[in-house]
Fold these 4 entries.
Entry 1:
Amino acid sequence: MSFINICRDNTDPFYRYKMPPIQSKVEGRGNGIRTAIVNLAEVSRALGRPPTYVLKYFGSELGAQTNESQDRYLINGAHDANELQDSLDGFIKKFVLCASCKNPETEIQVKKDILQRDCKACGHLSLIDPRSKLSSYIMKNPPDGGKGKKGKKAATATANVVGGGKTIADLVTDQKNDDESGETSLVVDENDDDDFLTKKINAEAAALADESIEVNDDDWAVDMSKEAIEARAKLDGLTLDSNAEFNQLGEWLLEESKDSKEDLPSDIDIYKKIVELEILDKAETIQVLAQTLFDDNIVEQIEEHLGLLAKLIKQEEENSKAFLGGLERYIGLENTSLIEKVPKILMALYDKDLISEEVIISWGSKVSKKYVPKEVSKKVRKAAKPFVKWLQEADEESDEE
């Protein structure tokens, strides 16, 4: 079975949160016509939500009655899979994705008259619009374990589903939001009005009564052992979407070098493969290479692949940022032991004229959650700070001269 990204707006070739696409079947005729969602249970399990929530959302969005009978999920009328998939995107945005980090590692909590998403990736709490018809249904039918819990929690991410319902996501722990105050913030997803402000005040008051959340000092990272990387590559290779070519390139490189990076194809063969996949001028190609060409000997390996990297990056700003983004993802999530070597890595890229000082300074001066969670981005850029500062000072001295 093919899998698609839970957040279809995410174009990361190694996006690890997958779900099966909606499969529907139209039954009956005339006034009795209806649509059966064949795999709603599997889709809901990937999202970590009860199937009834998704079914009720479809009913309210499509203006049709729904029915659940013996694990069969039905909607009155004829609705094709594409229409249901587009509607599901709205459900995911409103009831699954974290409003801060956009990860689907969330739980719905019901507290008094408040519905909120509790993110297990970044610890962020975001309010769910109480005006939605589904919100009223959830209030009356809260998820198991989603009501009245307090204090520190840990949960296994259910979004990263492989065939058979297995997961490759590791255990993640609660963390506080990135606010300088250190307090967990609540964000209203829709435009504020009096009703929302009232809800927000009540939610913050309820949060004060909760036990304090302890911050785990360990790096937030998934299990990126060799086995996990191979499993992720195989999963991505099955994805039939606009990222299929990048997934194929990444899967091929990881498979070829599963024993050692010395077993990687030659730069010429890698270049031919990129041409064959027709992704030569795509910034995502550079991002894939940044995540698959290196290991602990990255500084030396930059020299080994200099010809290929120089030809693809070409000192273009978009390509340079994509390469740094791929490195940030590899270093921050897959090989955290390299974080302390970030200054040496940047020096190698700068010294070999792969990345300009302007791009490095710009990248190092601003935290971004485009490629990794914000907390991980902070750690990588904090490690880069000495080299970025050196570049800035050298630039200032040059200006003075």
Entry 2:
Amino acid sequence: MEQPYRISSYCHIKNSSVFLDGKDVNASPIQEFSTFIKSAAKQLETNYPKFYKMDNLSKLAFLAADVLLKNADLSSDNEHNIAIILSNKASSLDTDRTYQASIADPEKFFPSPSVFVYTLPNICMGEISIKHQLHSENCFFIFDRFNADPLWINAQSLLKRKKAEKVLCGWVEFDDKNYEAFLYLVEENGIIAHSPNEIKRLYKT
């Protein structure tokens, strides 16, 4: 009998709070994103010096993934066959604006390599993979809004074809002052049904 794949845990970051499996693990009165995300990373013991050099989208995705993957109790000494499938609406637009501002004025023309490196949305997956030693497939989709169906289809395909042992999926959006991360982990030993309807329900929780 084929082993059903299920969601083992999920994480939300929104409104200055971090939720793990629906429980608030880091509420903060801080409204401004930059200060909030740094404070949350410190409180949740995200020990990764490069975190503070990342762009906002990568910080958001990285923290949500770190909360989930630490909760999964992965060994930090071994490689992990975990795929990543993420999505958003704005792509890397927030960082693109920052980079454009650095080159817009001919008098102050200064293209920054440290900003330019984040002008692709999938860079956040690389940051996650480096920290947690993930060695598998990854893909970043751009949708008009959260869309559970492609996430479900691609995760199921990777797991059934044994291309990954687990899949980290979700939505990570940063545009100006608006931000939200919703990530979940799919594997054989999960506890929540892995279906488009259930993914949508968790997203709205």
Entry 3:
Amino acid sequence: MVGVKRKLTLFMVMTLILSLFIVGCSNTTSENKGKDDNGDNGQGSSETVEITWWTFPNFQALDGELGKYEKQIIEAFNKKHPEIKVNLEMISFEGGPEKLNLAIASNTSPDMIYDAPGRIIDWAKKDLLMPLNDMFPKEVMDDISPALMKQSMVGDDVYMYPFNTGPFMMAVNKTIFEEIGELDLLPLDRPDRTWTVDEYEKALLAVKEKAPDVIPSGFYAKSVAGDQGTRGYITNLGGSRFLNEDYSEVAINSPGGVKGLEWVVEASKKGLVAPGSASLAASDHNDLFLQGKMAFAINYSAVLKSLFAPDKTVEFEDILLPYPTPDGSDPKLEPFLGGMAVFNNDDDKKAEAAKKLIDFIVNDPEWGKKNLIQTGGLSARNSITGVYEGSEYEYSELARKFITDPPTIADGYAEIRTFWFPALQEAILGTKTAQEALDNFAEKANEAIKKGKEK
């Protein structure tokens, strides 16, 4: 009897094992149905990779909703890469930089960021990013100007994929000059629109006299945001450079740089500059212009013109202009450059997934051009032109010839920029002369460059 029970038990165990084996084979066959030999379903790996994409509002908002367009990009991307889940987080230009610093400090960095060289290259120098060299075959490198690639690299390694660009310059409310009958004071009849500081000052005086309710021009010195506008303005007003040509030390405390800052100080005293500019932020300056309360904005570009369009509270025509120079010679314009980078979060699969998203945003046959237009910028590629219609975009393309090397790639730049606005405040408030303020800035900035080289 005992033997029979043992045989029965053994039979039941064997039956159970056999049934589990059959179920297992059935599931395996079902899971592999339609896959190729590599376990791929023809749309990428079946294993889901989850990445986080942080971005400033680099694309124009759809229906006034930030992030709506970015979500459309992700939806289109997932049709080609369903195996990659993208978590989007929108960050603001005001609080975003600090949020990024906190994320880096706490080892919770996003996998991908869409930003500008000022921060991206600083992170690269701190070994926080993944190199993107494998995304840059020779035909791509040759299609991007050396000035833009220089902003995207540290040594021989590429850390930012350049996407949209355009020279930073000024803008004027053309409508105001039409209303006061002084349109001929603007250099709009010149193909390159170059002009002198004296011509610019005459235009400002005309606004002050004939449109007393309008502030002639703007300036700001409250925080680091928009520092490129104040740099470009002052260096061109005095015919100077911000740093010397090899980025080894500050050049803005030269006679030309001092002359440029002195002009701003004197113009403030004459009422040609927005009052209280020492306590205005770049966003305050922008608001004055977009509200039609100020004739000239000193920090503009084709990209910003497009992004600012929904924020206009009155209708007027904003026209791009280069910064004036003492003798009307060609200005030196820093390039706006937006691009994407991948943080090194010690996960190769996430890094590769992030690179696929970058490639889709920039190079997809359908979405690449669509995404570029949504930024309002020109393409970083020399071969991609004529994307837009309209005189201002045509002028922005022409003004590319004025692009110069920006100081953002200098060693220690992240620290350098923190000393810049206090120096401007000191000069505007009169606590130091322009020379004293710039010499003090140079001393601190040169030390930051030195420390940056030693790291």
Entry 4:
Amino acid sequence: MPFSRADYDQYMVPNYAPAAIVPVRGAGSRVWDQAGKEYIDFGGGIAVNSLGHCHPELVAALTEQGNKLWHISNVFTNEPALALAKTLVEHTFAERVFFCNSGAEANEAALKLARRASIEKYGERKNKVLSALNSFHGRTFFTVSVGGQPKYSDGFGPKPAGIEHFKYNDLASLEALIDDDTACVIIEPIQGEGGVTPATQEFLQGVRALCDKFNALLIFDEVQSGNGRTGSLYAYMDFGVVPDILSTAKGLGGGFPIGAMLTTEKVAKHLVAGTHGTTYGGNPLATAVAGTAISIITRPETLSGVKAKSERIRAGLQAIADKYPVVAEIRGMGLLIGVQLKAEYAGRSRDVLNAAAEEGVLVLAAGPDVVRFAPSLVISDDEIDAGLARVEKAFARLVA
């Protein structure tokens, strides 16, 4: 007898509130629940399933590596990890790579490295971390405190010291906080959980200039915006602003858990042997799958396809917005798109999500007022059109 949603309440810690449906199978950009009902997946596992469900090349990579070597520990290195690191170095600004298991761990490593490098070079006072309000950088106590959303960090006792927050896309707000004691500024080029809000070119250029002025390291959190989601391998490439450290995860493994921190040799040298680590990070299974995922994502047809698919989805969403008086703004980059609901529908993003599921399409919320779309980078035009038709029915329900 299959498990049901009710079993979650009986056996699981109640920190999530999952939907009523229980998906059991996926293929491409479609999933099926226990009753056999089909759904078009516009959520992508929260921007994780970068190549959809059960992509044959990823399944082959997992199967092949699964028959060779799963885990060997960081007492040794391994070939898939070295191959993936080499690929990431060749395709980005980075010269060194650290592998872990999630975006939170990648940001934890980035923040620890930034503080250690700054302290070793300039002294103990240079430890301040600056982050944007309404940002999200993970759920470890350090990263959730750095993220500028008190609803996630309050209630757990005293928070780590030396963390301050500025307004996103407001350079004057950052300028008022940054000083010679600042170790780093961490920022999402596109705020994901905070509402799918892209940074402006002027803002990111200004942040880079301020970091240079005060000898602070610039960290780009590209956990959600990276791995082809904008139509470039990483969003920093779209802005032409290069960070000192970059965190990545989610779509990196195409659904298999993996995270990474990318940086320069000059910065990386401060994490000498024993200063940071992870048991599972860089294991052969994860890096083999991620290596294949990146090889597919970096194909010119994949990246160019992201831009074309983005235009198709945005045009469809605009047509829905023109028909139903619900949408205030459509924003984002590539296949990370947010639909801001009008004030009279504030707090209703979850209602849209639930209505969409009933209509057979999976979408996401990014806060109470934004509906988020993060589908597979290789979703077909037919799946886009069919999904949009179901999304329209969901919005129709909202105004009924």
